[in-house]
Design brief:
Elements (H helix, E strand, L loop, with lengths): L19 H5 L3 E3 L5 E5 L3 E6 L5 E6 L2 E2 L17 H6 L1 H4 L9 E11 L2 E10 L4 E10 L5 E4 L1
Antiparallel strand pairs: 1-2, 2-3, 3-4, 4-5, 6-7, 7-8, 8-9
Length: 148
């Protein structure tokens, strides 16, 4: 049982100010790259690998947020609990630890001037499932991602 709390780091966050240029500029879908869909905003850039459908480059405000050679991939696994171990679930559901994701389709569109959409559809043959990942990039940022 916890009985004390410790402040690990004191500090103040800088005031958040809206960048008018960022808020007014439309995202741009660049289709001239063979390997990536490149989507650019006023101060951000995202690259989505056409072979995998995963985000492989993410930069915002001049800061690279994803290390070179890495991709944002779905993760279905969590550390097993004691109850999981007792029931053998870590073995029964081991297929979810590193499931094969077969990209079935990848489509990028710009249905409106201030909107870029990218839809990736996958098959997970080992578990008999499908996965849909939809990215939505607006004039402000690439903030909306949904998975089904």
């Amino acid at each position: 049982m916890a009985h004390e709390q410790f402040v690990l780091q004191k500090g103040q966050l800088p005031e958040l100010k809206l960048n008018e240029q960022r808020a007014q500029s439309a995202p741009e879908l660049l289709s001239n790259d063979v390997q990536y869909y490149i989507i650019k905003g006023a101060d951000w850039r995202i690259e989505i690998d056409k072979a995998t459908g995963f985000v492989s480059h993410y930069e915002a405000g001049g800061v690279q947020l994803l290390d070179e050679g890495h991709q944002l991939r779905p993760n279905f696994w969590r550390a097993p609990t004691d109850n999981d171990m007792g029931a053998g679930l870590q073995r029964r559901y081991a297929v979810w630890r590193h499931p094969e994701l077969k990209l079935k389709s990848l489509k990028a569109t710009q249905p409106e001037p201030m909107l870029v959409k990218l839809e990736a559809r996958y098959e997970l043959p080992a578990v008999g499932a499908t996965l849909s990942i939809d990215y939505t990039m607006t004039r402000r940022d690439a903030s909306s991602t949904s998975r089904r």
